[in-house]
Write a structure and sequence with these properties.
- The protein is built from one helix and nine strands, in the order E-E-H-E-E-E-E-E-E-E.
- It is mainly beta.
- Strands 1, 2, 3, 4, 5, 6 and 7 form a seven-stranded antiparallel beta sheet that branches.
- The structure holds fe (iii) ion.
- The site of fe (iii) ion (FE) has 3 residues, from strand 6.
């Protein structure tokens, strides 16, 4: 699913071709016991699902893009919700015409490579669902 190497307090994580990024990162954080931290990365995908929350209706709009795209940037954070790893990931994705789409990343399947740095923080960052915004906000 992935290779990883710890250098100092941080990890280099290389997710295998054909694997799903969010699933692999969640598994990585579970195995390493990471409950707070930061993720940065790049790579290439063949499909990605982005999510947009309409703040007026609190409705999620999910859209899947089935095309080869470069991850020009992936940024995210690691926390815990209901006792399990909770990832918050955003990505910008470069299309073959060099335009870029982006947003809240639900999941993406790698076609090529996905190279990430994971910077764990000591301790736990918690989350809970907020009724007013409909978001799973930090509960610090
Ligand atoms: Fe988001």
């Amino acid at each position: 699913m992935y290779q990883h190497k710890k250098l100092g307090d941080s990890f280099i994580v290389s997710i295998d071709n054909g694997c799903r990024i969010a699933a692999a990162l969640t598994e990585f954080c579970r195995r390493e016991g990471i409950s707070a931290g930061e993720i940065t990365g790049l790579g290439a995908v063949r499909t990605a699902t982005l999510r947009f929350l309409d703040p007026a209706t609190l409705e999620y709009v999910d859209k899947t893009f089935d095309e080869q795209m470069e991850i020009t940037n992936l940024t995210g954070n690691i926390s815990r919700k209901d006792g399990d790893v909770y990832l918050h990931l955003h990505a910008s994705l470069g299309r073959s015409d060099y335009s870029v789409i982006g947003g809240h990343l639900l999941e993406a399947t790698i076609n090529g490579a996905c190279e990430l740095f994971v910077h764990p923080l000591p301790g736990t960052a918690g989350r809970r669902q907020d009724e007013e915004t409909g978001l799973n906000l930090y509960d610090l």
